[in-house]
Amino acid sequence: MRPLTEEETRVMFEKIAKYEKIMKLAANISGDKLVSLGTCFGKFTKTHKFRLHVTALDYLAPYAKYKVWIKPGAEQSFLYGNHVLKSGLGRITENTSQYQGVVVYSMADIPLGFGVAAKSTQDCRKVDPMAIVVFHQADIGEYVRHEETLT
Amino acid sequence: MGRKLDPTKEKRGPGRKARKQKGAETELVRFLPAGAVQTAGKKGPQSLFNAPRGKKRPAPGSDEEEEEEDSEEDGMVNHGDLWGSEDDADTVDDYGADSNSEDEEEGEALLPIERAARKQKAREAAAGIQWSEEETEDEEEEKEVTPESGPPKVEEADGGLQINVDEEPFVLPPAGEMEQDAQAPDLQRVHKRIQDIVGILRDFGAQREEGRSRSEYLNRLKKDLAIYYSYGDFLLGKLMDLFPLSELVEFLEANEVPRPVTLRTNTLKTRRRDLAQALINRGVNLDPLGKWSKTGLVVYDSSVPIGATPEYLAGHYMLQGASSMLPVMALAPQEHERILDMCCAPGGKTSYMAQLMKNTGVILANDANAERLKSVVGNLHRLGVTNTIISHYDGRQFPKVVGGFDRVLLDAPCSGTGVISKDPAVKTNKDEKDILRCAHLQKELLLSAIDSVNATSKTGGYLVYCTCSITVEENEWVVDYALKKRNVRLVPTGLDFGQEGFTRFRERRFHPSLRSTRRFYPHTHNMDGFFIAKFKKFSNSIPQSQTGNSETATPTNVDLPQVIPKSENSSQPAKKAKGAAKTKQQLQKQQHPKKASFQKLNGISKGADSELSTVPSVTKTQASSSFQDSSQPAGKAEGIREPKVTGKLKQRSPKLQSSKKVAFLRQNAPPKGTDTQTPAVLSPSKTQATLKPKDHHQPLGRAKGVEKQQLPEQPFEKAAFQKQNDTPKGPQPPTVSPIRSSRPPPAKRKKSQSRGNSQLLLS
User: Fold this and answer.
1) How many angstroms away from the CA of A57 is the closest CA of chain B?
2) Angle B708-B709-B712 from CA coordinates, rounded to 5°
3) Which of B311, B378, B402 has the CB atom closest to A150's CB atom?
4) CA-based angle A111:A117:A120, to the nearest 5?
5) Tens digits of per-residue pLDDT, B572-624?
6) How far is CA B477 from the centre of its chain?
């Protein structure tokens, strides 16, 4: 996963602070019975890397500096976990560098998930339609596809 | 031409064609041999048609005429005869011989074609073929004659068939016939018979068959309904008790069809208007749900899967049944409140509450089923709900885990008789035991839920109990039980539609305030069957009654048995047990984390009720221990508590003029009375007062006094008190027996622990 940007880090901790009150109440509940509290942003892997979950989308999307809009036809494909091809690309923020973390939107400005830009904005203009432009990382389709493993 | 002219081919199904293929049959008749056989004894084939339906024949003359008219209309002459004979054979089953002799009808001139047809029919009957179309025609015929006078009775079992002559077209088949039907139920015929019987029962005096009782008709109807709609006997019996007959059939029909798909807009992320527009653009045909809902939409049809649109995945709406929106609307959670949702899966109601609260406050969403909790987590994350804690407890463990909520929603697990359209297995797999088991669990959950509500909450103090079941055992009975056991009352739900709950049902009588509860049915409101009741808790103390305090009781029991002297049997043990139980309960029930009890013990006078409640519980537990002197600290606590209690009691006694006292008294009496050492029931304050002194070495002279004051109402208690006062009980175990036990004289009481208490008391 990509590292959190400064913005994201700030946002994440801000949100976490809001949960203090709720956390106090949740302290009453024994650990094995507490299933979920607040919003899961992601999980730490065994090697201490932080993996961001789609459940953090609501919080991160408004702060995203680099966005990618995909065409309606490509929405379904992305929601199934596929990467975004050039043919499905609608718009992309200017100055996106390669391997930059991006938030993927539909044309109606609904956030669909996270991704990593496979090509910089300049390159995107040049590649052929079948090339991948955004690597898929997390999408809201996982709410249905991976309900079991969602935190 | 294109139609098949094969009369032997059964026309199945509810459609018109199946019922009315007169043309083909008419034509068929033409092909039959000319020598029609008109033996009256040819009931076999006819009985095929008639028997199960038990159609009655109207007066032979009229029948004949009608039949002939019909046949003429249809072009089938012999049908009239056949019908006539079938009518006579009413109660004969298909396979039995119809001993009715149709001679009189047949005596009339049968056209050759009729004879031929009859013969044909006999042949076919012999082949065991049922002519459903015949039957339908018969049915039609019989309908015509329905209004006529009483049907003849044909007793197959008796072997003596009577001729049905002036009887209603519908004759109730004899008992023997019932089994036969089961063997080869012809749904068409069964359906027809259902309609006939309902019609007859509606105007029973005029249309009944002579000599047949109403219950015979009802039994027949019950069996037919069970066959036609595939219900088990038990559930069908319950439904017949609940609904009048006309509604019953509508209800059963409604359960065969799914309710319309409805969804609820997630106002945390979008507005209904925008969502509707977006979905329409995707190809969904929808409408607002109704005046009563500002966020609901009903989906008529959709070209895309409604549970997988990007809007759904983005959390803009949630698929939810219309009746599931109602309890949340009734509960009306406010912002910045603390809410408990005891059985939250899959999270539709929880998320609705969160959106009404605008993500403020705290919701504790609990469910006992770990698998279903996953969907709760997923749904709440998807919908952007941030004020919720999700936990995995058995609902009955509240409020011990945490209590003091402003509002509680209890959507109790039930038998599911209101959502049969979603799960047809309920039709057959529910029986008496299941319903009672559900009811027992619901009662326990409801009591726990009530105890988790903080009555002194500034904005709340409400609890909504709802089930998706329509049986009285799970609804009104449970609510009535709670009214008796706790300090709650029913308040209007705020829903302006829906049927009122029952205040009486068969042999049961419920509190009149049950009228403010609401019932919803699939056939009247086009939503899943539902029941909603809204309570307001007006006091945090727990009235004694406690049979349910078994938990508290048990400890006392354990301790007490040894202690209790024989004399105790009566009131003392009971009282003590009660007291202990009570205190315990109250203690447990104490929702506020700050367990006033302890504070009260020291501080006193917090409020009679609350204190009493806490104290009793404390005393109870302690009482047991104190008796034993096993645990000093405990004893001390008890001792302390007791004095407090008594003190409180005193304070309370004047107050307790109300039902509380009575309640307490009652509480005390019942639970304990039974066994010698029932630890259980703590009686209400009064008893507590009395008990305390007895049990715990409470010095209670005071207590006694108090008790006495408090228990004016109950003779039991009075006696108990007196006994207690009189008899020195010493360490006696509080067990039960009702109040009669005498109390050990203060001197004898173990003062070791109580000393401190008594001092407190006195002070």
Assistant:
1) 10
2) 80
3) B378
4) 125
5) 444 444 444 444 444 444 444 444 444 444 444 444 444 444 444 444 444 44
6) 8
- What are the beta bridge partners of residue B337? none
Question: Helix B608-628 and helix B550-563: axis angle, to 10°?
Answer: 40
Residue B463 amino acid letter: L
* β-pair partners for B263: B297, B319
| Best-predicted range by mean pLDDT (B87-101, B380-394, B598-612) | B380-394
Query: Is B389 in Cβ contact with A36 (below 8 Å)?
Result: yes
| B512–chain A Cβ distance below 8 A for any pair | no
Q: What is the DSSP letter of B458?
A: S
Helices B60-74 and B77-88, axial angle in degrees (round to 10): 150
The reply to whether residue A108 touches residue B278, judged by beta carbons under 8 angstroms, is yes
ipTM of the complex: 0.79
Provide residues of A within 8 Å CB-CB of chain B.
15, 18-19, 21-22, 25-26, 28-30, 33-40, 55, 58, 75, 79, 106, 108, 110-112, 140-141, 143-144, 147-148, 150-151
Q: Which residues pair with B514 in a beta bridge?
A: none
Q: How far apart are CA B82 and CA B85, in angstroms?
A: 5
Rounded CA-CA distance B713/B657 in Å is 9
Residues of B in contact with A111 (CB under 8 A): 314
Tokens found for residue B423: 């799960």
Closest among B219, B133, B150 to B179, alpha carbons compared:
B219
CA distance A101 to chain B (A): 20
Chain B residues 568-607 with CB within 8 Å of chain A: 593
Render B129-187 in DSSP notation, one character per residue: ---HHHHHHHHHHHHHHTTSSPPP--BTTTTBPPP--S--S--PPPHHHHHHHHHS--H
Active site residue B343: no
pLDDT at A20 over 90: no
- Write the DSSP string, B515-550: GGSEEE-HHHHSS--EEEEEEEE--SS--S-GGGGH
Q: What is the pLDDT of residue B541?
A: 87
Which chain B residue's Cα is nearest to A15? B386
Q: Look at residue B728 and tell me whether its pLDDT is greater than 60.
A: no
Q: Token pair for residue B562?
A: 């040894």
The pair of structure tokens assigned to B470 is 């329509």
CB atoms within 10 A of CB B589: 23
Helix (H, G, I), strand (E, B) or coil at B89: coil
CA distance B373 to chain A (A): 8
Question: From the CB of residue B419, how many other CB atoms can be counted at a distance below 10 Å?
Answer: 21
The token duo for B32 is 């039959």
Q: Chain B residue with minimal CA distance to A75?
A: B310
CA-to-CA distance for B620 and B627, rounded, in angstroms? 10
| B32-67 pLDDT tens trace | 665 444 444 444 444 444 444 444 444 444 444 444
pLDDT at B129 exceeding the cut of 60: no
Alpha-carbon distances of B90 from B67, B83, B191, B195, rounded to whole Å = 16, 10, 16, 16
- Helix (H/G/I), strand (E/B), else coil: B734: coil
Structure tokens at B493: 């739900």
pLDDT at B534 over 50: yes
| Interface test with chain B among A24, A33, A104, A139, by most B beta carbons within 10 Å | A33
**A40 to chain B, minimum CA–CA distance in Å?**
8
Whether residue B280 lies within 8 A of chain A, CB to CB, comes out as no
Residues of A with CB below 8 A from B310's CB? 75, 79, 106, 110, 112, 140
In angstroms, the Cα distances linking A41 to A150, B381, B382, B586, B746 are 11, 10, 12, 41, 64
Would the CB atoms of A28 and B401 count as touching at under 8 Å?
Answer: yes
CB of B338 less than 8 A from some CB of A: yes
More confident position, B14 or B463: B463
Residue of A nearest to B402 (CA): A28
